[in-house]
Amino acid sequence: xxxxxxxxxxxxxxxxxxxxxxxxxxxxxxxxxxxxxxxxxxxxxxxxxxxxxxxxxxxxxxxxxxxxxxxxxxxxxxxxxxxxxxxxxxxxxxxxxxxxxxxxxxxxxxxxxx
Length: 114
What we know:
This protein has 114 residues and is mainly alpha-helical.
């Protein structure tokens, strides 16, 4: 059953909200500590440490790495003949200069760096 809060003043409601926030934080911390203790028990039962289990999970085959946005740098494959400083590796969206040239009928292969 929900308590009837309609008779409380603004000050009383703010105090209640503050107390609820403190209780939520304390309960969340307690739940996390209990979960950690369970994980330690699982690791102990497996004859391992929690750190070893975490390391295995991070290196598990088929698992995507946490840094999916980072790629190894590659050399540019395409160059703008009008401005040799403008290059493109072939990864990601085509640069505007290249898209404009292709729209004007040129072939992508004509911009390959030899």
